[in-house]
């Protein structure tokens, strides 16, 4: 069967313009600057794009079921977001029991909110435990479903092309920094950088720093700056729900999850807002007005995460952090705000969030929106598309969502993986999967061509 398949793939290459071009170029010495032919590899299991928590969890769940996979990662390490694009003081925002990946609990000695370094160590142990070996420096440049072959063609910057029946998109909701257009920002003579490049407030000691964006990152960066003796100001353009990280000695998140089991979402929102008012007071007095929808409803309807306060509000109250309205424009040394205030700053930090990069490489118009790179269907239907396409970590539910996606994806793939293989394969100790069925036969062709 495998021979049949490979013969059929050879047949397809005759019609493949990319292969044809490279093949011809290879034989035509006159064209000296042509790229070398792409290395082609048929992957027996799924290709997973991204070696962050979602990709690793999916590979681990698959491996537990005896299904091998190939993880392609653009950087040279696992969890690049956590290792290289987060600040030093970062701890998990949610208690550890809500951030575990399938198959490995956090070590018992870890605190309730593990530090960034502890979380990275945990992910390294995860990779060791499940024997995962992501292929590093393999940025996926394009992935397209080949209807004739019934397979995905995944091309990487390392000049390789992988062919697979299942493709798992695990490139993250935070793949690229989102940088808004701000009039005049190019004129500013001081430093301008995105919060993903911010490490620590030490270098800003004594400086006036404007932090744009009041999500969890913006609020925490301000706190860090204030702790290191800088003079931070926070731009708050919209309304925002700030909640204490803990209420009644319990994590606000855990409490909400528990209450949601018994009560309707709106009632839980009311209780949360009452608890927040009790713990933090009226946040609108400090320029942090609340949206009309409650925090959980807002998260469910618009995916907007409430801010869990870890001490920033106290610094705002004490005047160590100044809250400012939206920016009108930036000049060489100053920033003008919509209320006509003009202030001088030494640096501007953009805590303006992240965006998905899926539209830049996935050639597919059904499952993912080309506009924002997120699955079009709402939760809980974000994880599965057509023709063996899956999304892990795109449910706007953090690490808990990633863990759930990983398990669902592995279960779904398992259903057709063992469809007509011998039961003994499940206990194959080497995980080297004999391929007894042509992958082409798994997905019916929707169109006939060539
Ligand atoms: C500052 C900050 C704090 C956070 N804190 C929490 C928290 O406490 N709790 C929580 O649940 N969530 C938190 N999150 C959300 C967090 O991003 C996710 O929970 C988690 O990292 C998602 O994992 P992921 O694997 O889906 O995405 P990522 O961690 O972003 O991993 C995606 C991987 O894909 C790779 N990649 C991207 N494009 C390509 C490509 N074209 N080819 C190959 N590889 C590619 C990236 O290099 C990356 O390694 C936080 C996010 C940020 C930014």
TrEMBL record:
Show the catalytic activity.
Answer: indole-3-pyruvate + NADPH + O2 + H(+) = (indol-3-yl)acetate + CO2 + NADP(+) + H2O
* Keywords, comma-separated and alphabetical: Auxin biosynthesis, FAD, Flavoprotein, Monooxygenase, NADP, Oxidoreductase
**Which InterPro entries does the annotation name?**
Auxin_biosynth/cation_transpt (IPR050982), FAD/NAD-bd_sf (IPR036188)
> What is this enzyme's EC?
1.14.13.168
Q: Which coenzymes or cofactors are required?
A: FAD
One of its GO biological process terms is: auxin biosynthetic process
Q: Which domain of life is it from?
A: Eukaryota
Q: Which pathway does the record list?
A: Plant hormone metabolism; auxin biosynthesis
Please name the Pfam families in this protein's record. Pyr_redox_3
* SUPFAM superfamilies from the UniProt entry: FAD/NAD(P)-binding domain
- Drop me one GO molecular function for this one: flavin adenine dinucleotide binding
Identify its protein family: Belongs to the FMO family.
- Protein name (database record): indole-3-pyruvate monooxygenase
Q: Which organism is it from?
A: Linum tenue
